[in-house]
Amino acid sequence: MPLKPFLPAGLAALGLLTTAVPTPAQPATTAASNPLLQEWTGPYGGVPPWDKVDPALFKPAFLAAIDLQRKEIDAITSNPAPPSFANTIEALQRAGRALGRIDVLFGVMTNNRNAPEYQALDRELSPVFAAADDETTFNEKLFARVAAVQASMATAGLTPEQQRLTQRTYDGFVRQGAKLGAAQKKELSRINQDLASAFSDFATKVLADEDTWTTLDSEADLAGLPPALVSAYKAAAEERKLPGKWAVVNTRSSVDPFLTFSSRRDLREKVWKTFKSRGDNGNANDTNAVIARIVKLRAERAALLGYPTHAHWRMDDTMARDPQKAMDLMLRVWAPAVARVKEEVADMQAVAAKEGQAITIEPWDYLYYAEKVRKAKYALDTNELKPYFELNNVIAASYAMAEKLYGLTFTEITGTVPVFHPDVRVYEVKDKATGRHVGVYYRDDFARQYKRSGAWASGYRGQRTFDGPVTPITSNNNNFVKGAAGEPVLISLDDARTLFHEFGHALHGLLMNVTYPGLAGTPRDFVEFPSQVHENWVLTRDLLDTYFRHYKTRAPMPQALVDKVKNAAKFNQGYATVEYLASAIVDMRLHLLPGGVVDADAFERDTLTAIGAPKEVAMRHRLPQFNHLFTSDSYSAGYYSYLWSDVMASDAWAAFEEAGSPWDPAVAGKFKDIILATGNRIDRAEAYRQFRGREPDVNALLANRGFPTTAPAKR
Asked: For the chain, what is the largest distance between any 2 Cα atoms, rounded to a whole number of angstroms?
């Protein structure tokens, strides 16, 4: 799940990469004196200068880039010629490029190597960035020119793409407050700067709580754990200077396997509680007060902008538009998911009783006993799968998928271009048929100190043709746990699907074919759709036979084992759906509070009670650690997007199934040309209709999860 969206939203999607504002006079900084200000040089149209990145360079580079951008905006507003698409809208697409390049470098460092010096910079500069956004948005002369082009675009001979860019540029300014009065703009700017500071504060606190671990002291603490996992925990302990110990790091990729396999119930409880209490320990890293501040500020901003709630403002530029539509979809899926959890818990309770365990299933028991039920019902032990999912083979399989579906090839060029960490690998992407250079792709797969948890994709450079062509640079970031020296990294089937998911985001960027960068960004509830579709190729027979071979014997995964996996595909869907939807529903209800006054812990608890959340399943992301919601506005009132997108993803995969092959060239071609390449050149709902010939069918998603499909099929 990309926390920082691969495709930008808001003003960034309009090409207005305004992220800072001037502070008091600083010594002159130029491209000659600060390499971060320079155009990217080297092969492939230039690559990020990671070898020149230094935290001391960022502040002066940002300030100089801001000044440059101001001059670019002044050139637009002082142009004596009447406003036109070329001298206003296109000029805005060019403005702020130096600032955008620096912002990319800074964003990657604060996500992947967020050491204390970067945390301090982020705290200092975040409100400065927010003020700069407002400086551009609130520039009355600039908005007047944009409005003039928008008012005349129907008669100005603009292409449909130019008209769409103009309208979206205008709408973006209005949504961010360009029409407010002077006093309101001043208040809105205060709110935006306060929010930026709060976002940085939240991220820093959660990161600190994730840089912890549970120490396993003896062999007895390893009961039930498979050897590969023991090795990984051993390596994690050694990295943390804990000789003779094992460490379960406080990240999902380390915690979930422990909860699945450890037969030590006391330690499962300890590990689970440590993980779920991130940001909620009443110490210096507690985030509850920060959450209350953020939610209140968001409500105040929405009111200033004329929206009933933050959810209404945030969803104004999405496919769903209306919060109630998103809520209706979530509640439609919620009821059967809760019913399924009750069945799953009953099955687990029976297994525990059969083993003579006089216990009541708790959240830290769920994954452990689910694994036992899986073995009993489907004769499937997930430990049987891991030997077939060696990380390098999974990566190779993802590239094979891209080649077979879209004609892309990935050639490793690591060592020929700078990287921000020795673990990073780099690839040139080409079109197989023509040999044409398509883009550059970076991957950073392993967990480390100061790297935020989770998996995400991001773009280093977007594709454009209007003054190019410029080719894209994309990246994927994971948090897999390294094994001991010389040992392979074996990942789970779920991790393999996550890798393919994030790779889907990268493919979306690599295959983009838009004229203007302002039409590259897609709505939040569409952007997950392409990534979710690509998860389906993991278990296709071609990839299983060629890439997912046993890391020792090199034998392909037996069809009998594949059949077990597919037979169990709907297993535990109650758990998976409820843990996600609980987070999404709490998010939406939180941001539907008109006044925004909230006690996060109480609100979370009361909301879960009100919707009848099963006590055995915790939220996937509790509010105190919910980075999606509180490190930016991106996924606030937007976590529902994964479900909304999955409706389209499930229905799109059905198109391949109906065609008789996951590699059907006609369906793949339509998906590439209509869904991936078009960015936001056309309305995304219309794009889906062009691809599928109709609206997406919700029943495809319900069927995939094994839920009843008797309700009406259309949203």
From this structure: 85
Catalytic residue among 502, 535, 579, 604: 502
Q: Is there a contact between 8 and 14 (Cβ–Cβ < 8 Å)?
A: no
Q: Specify burial of residue 684 (Cβ count, 10 A radius: 0-12, 13-18, 19+).
A: buried
310 vs 315, 592, 594, 634, CA distance in Å?
Answer: 8, 7, 8, 12
Q: Positive or negative, the Cα torsion across 44, 50, 55, 60? A: negative
- Phi then psi for residue 426, to 5 deg, are -130, 145
Residue 437, SS3? strand
Strand partners, 213: 249
Task: In whole angstroms, give the CA distance from residue 223 to residue 264.
Answer: 6
Q: What phi, psi does 317 have (nearest 5°)?
A: -115, 45
The neighbouring-strand residues paired with 216 are 246
CA 469, distance to chain mean position in Å, is 27
Burial class (CB within 10 angstroms; exposed 0-12, middle 13-18, buried 19+) of 113:
middle
d(CA 556, CA 543): 10
Q: What pLDDT, in 10s, does the model give residues 396-426? A: 999 999 999 999 999 999 999 999 999 999 9
Give pLDDT, residue 21. Answer: 35
Q: Could you please report the per-residue DSSP string of 297-364? A: HHHHHHHHTT-SSHHHHHGGGSSS-SHHHHHHHHHHHHHHHHHHHHHHHHHHHHHHHHTT------GG
pLDDT band at 710, cuts 50/70/90?
low
Residue 141, H or E segment: helix 140-152
Q: What is the pLDDT of residue 180?
A: 97
Contact criterion met (CB below 8 Å) for 670 and 688: no
pLDDT at residue 376 tops 80: yes
What Cα–Cα distance (Å) separates residue 573 from each residue in 255, 364, 495, 570? 20, 17, 16, 6
Q: Note if the bond before 594 is cis, omega within 30 degrees.
A: no
CB 688 within 8 A of CB 648: yes
d(CA 715, CA 219): 53
Let me know: does 425 contact 441? Beta carbons within 8 Å: no
- How far apart (Å, rounded) are the C-alpha atoms in residues 456 and 2? 4
Question: How many Å separate Cα 281 from the centre of its chain?
Answer: 26
Catalytic (active site) residue 502: yes
**Which pLDDT score, from 0 to 100, does residue 10 have?**
30
Rg (CA), the chain: 25
Q: Would you place residue 523 in the very low, low, confident or very high pLDDT band (cuts 50, 70, 90)?
A: very high
What pLDDT score does 16 carry? 32
**Mind listing the domains of the chain with CATH numbers?**
10-207 (1.10.1370.40), 212-276 (no CATH)
pLDDT 10s digits, 612-646: 999 999 999 999 999 999 999 999 999 999 999 99
Are 675 and 517 within 8 A, CB to CB?
no
Q: Which of 4, 199, 17 is nearest to 92 (CA)?
A: 17
Query: Mean pLDDT in the chain?
Result: 93
Say what the pLDDT of residue 17 is.
Answer: 30
Contact (Cβ atoms closer than 8 angstroms) between residue 475 and residue 457: yes
Residue written as tokens 């002159």?
A: 28
**Residue of 574, 609, 617, 575 whose CA lies nearest to 589:** 609
The DSSP secondary-structure symbol of 478 reads: E
Q: Which two tokens stand for residue 276?
A: 């779920």
**Burial of 286 from C-beta contacts in 10 A (0-12 / 13-18 / 19+):** middle
